[in-house]
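About this split. The held-out portion is used to measure sequence recovery: a designer receives only the structure tokens and must propose an amino acid at every position. Recovery is the fraction of positions where the proposal matches the reference. Here is one held-out target exactly as it appears in the evaluation file.
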């Protein structure tokens, strides 16, 4: 009986010790956090890395190479851009150079001239993890 009473008192005391803590946040801090989150929401593009598979002036060659690449690697997005006068076929979108280097090591056997390139217009949804 003493043991049950002791356990009940112990549980009651433990329940009291879980008191709520309230923090009074100054309005300046709240405004700063709100401004910070709004700025981050407005950023739609980030800086990242891509693998440059092919850079040429022949658009047909770029489109054929893209089709072959997508057939061989269907899980890796690839697209070409026209950077006058060249058409550049780029694959993947990575936040770090190390992650892009892993893809480069995989595809370098098939595309020996592939290199890493910096891209300042990567959408966060395009990133490969």
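Reference sequence for scoring:
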């Amino acid at each position: 009986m003493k043991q049950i009473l002791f356990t009940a008192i112990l549980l009651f005391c433990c329940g009291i010790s879980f008191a709520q803590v309230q923090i009074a946040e100054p309005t300046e801090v709240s405004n700063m956090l709100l401004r910070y989150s709004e700025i981050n929401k407005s950023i739609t593009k980030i800086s990242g890395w891509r693998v440059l598979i092919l850079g040429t002036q022949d658009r047909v060659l770029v489109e054929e190479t893209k089709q072959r690449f997508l057939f061989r690697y269907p899980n890796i997005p690839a697209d070409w851009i026209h950077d006058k006068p060249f058409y550049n076929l780029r694959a993947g979108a990575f936040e770090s150079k190390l992650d892009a280097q892993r893809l480069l090591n995989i595809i370098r056997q098939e595309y020996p001239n592939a290199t890493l390139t910096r891209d300042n217009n990567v959408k966060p949804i395009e990133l490969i993890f």
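Annotator remark: The domain at 46-124 is CATH 3.30.70.1070 (Alpha-Beta Plaits).
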